Amino acid sequence: MANRNPEFEEIFSGVRCGTEADTMSLGRQIASKVKSSLILSLEGPLGAGKTCFVKGLANGLGIDCDEVSSPTFTLVHEYTGGRIPLVHFDLYRLESEEELLPLGFEEYLGTPGIVAIEWGGKFPGSLPTGTWRLSFAIDPDGRKIQAALAS
């Protein structure tokens, strides 16, 4: 299969995160495997662990995870100083794809580092092929995270 990604399949062979620490650990695990660039669309309801996951990514890159917060009002945060840069978008308040343009969204997608996009599923046509689409859900045992590759 030409579209297979062994690292992706290894990490997401069925993930359940019972605690925030588990969710952060998954973020750290992914960050440890990224060599240059990765785009992640983080999808799911409020409180499902998307920002907690990004804190784990930051920690795994050597960025102080206490600096990470949801960019709901600023829409994008850049974190540098780690092994590779981390860009964190939150598209929750956006109504249309046209609002992505003044944020420099497309330019960020082409730069080295990790781009984590909360609520990326609102505009799936803006996600490039190969984006890891992570679907966060809340269930009685904690958080369940399912993944698919954007095609």
Description:
25% of the residues lie in helices and 27% in strands. The protein is α/β, with parallel strands linked by helices and 151 residues long. It has one domain: 3-Layer(aba) Sandwich (Rossmann fold), CATH 3.40.50. A seven-stranded mixed sheet has the order 1-7-6-2-5-4-3, with helices on one face. Helix 2 packs across helix 3 (50-61). The two termini are 13 Å apart. The relative contact order is 0.23. The mean pLDDT is 86.
The CATH superfamily is known as P-loop containing nucleotide triphosphate hydrolases
Number of strands: 7
Given as residue ranges, the uncertain stretches (5+ residues, pLDDT < 50) are none
Structural class: alpha/beta
Helix content: 10-25%
CATH class: Alpha Beta
User: Could you please say which CATH topology applies here?
Assistant: Rossmann fold
**N-to-C SSE series?**
HEHEHEEHEEE
- How would you characterize the largest beta sheet? 7 strands, mixed
Q: Going across the biggest sheet, name each strand in turn.
A: 1-7-6-2-5-4-3
State the distance separating the first and last CA atoms: 13 Å
Q: What would the average pLDDT be, to the nearest integer?
A: 86
Beta-strand portion reads 25-35%
Summarize it.
This protein is of the alpha/beta class and 151 residues long. It has helices at 6-11, 20-33, 50-61, 105-109; strands at residues 15-17, 37-43, 76-79, 86-90, 113-118, 132-139, 142-149.
